[in-house]
Amino acid sequence: MYKVAYIKIRPFGKVYRYLNTLENLKEGEFVIVEGDFGLTVGYVLKVLHEEKNSLKPILRIATEEDMDTFRKNLTLEKEAFDFCLEKIKERNLPMKLLVVESALDKKRIIFYFTAEGRIDFRELVKDLAAKYKTRIEMRQIGVRDETKFFGGIGVCGMEICCKKFINLFKPISLRMAKDQEITLNVFKLSGICGRLKCCLRYEYHGEIEETLLDEEIVAQEEREPEIKKLSFIIRNTKDELIDENTEGNQKNESE
Question: Which parts pass through the membrane (predicted)?
Answer without folding.
Answer: none
